[in-house]
Amino acid sequence: MNRLAIITGFLGEVWNRYMVYQGNRTLAEKLELASHIEGVDGLELCYPADFEKPAELKELLARYTFGISGVNFRSRRTGKWWRGSFISENASERQEVVSDLKRAMDLAAELGCHRITTCPLNEGADTLFEVDYVKVYDYAAETFSAACAHNRGIRICIEYKQSDPMARCIFGTAGETASFCQLTGADNLGATLDTGHALYANERPAQSAALLARANRLFYVHLNDNDGRWDWDMLPGAFHVWEFVELFYTLRKLGYTDDWYAFDVSPKEIDTVENFNATMILTRKLEEITDRIDVGKMEQLLRERNSSKTIPYLYSLL
Question: pTM for the complete prediction?
Answer without folding.
Answer: 0.97
